[in-house]
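TL;DR need structure tokens for one chain.
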Amino acid sequence: QDSIDELNGRMTAVQGHTFSISENTKAILAITQAILRSVMNIETETEGFGARLQRMENNIQEMTDTLDDIATKGIKLKP
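>> reply
TL;DR here they are.
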């Protein structure tokens, strides 16, 4: 009888651990799905960003060149 009670106790502990593992797995899945949604959102929001940065760099270079011209040649006013 003692060994049956011991086995029942161990089986109850195994069931508790199995339930805990199942619940934690569900929680990990929910968190993983939220992370994936965030990453997909980041991908969508940053699509084409490289081309935009290149245009910004080109515009800044043009402004820098213009300012350099003003510094060395002065401002020319058109009539």
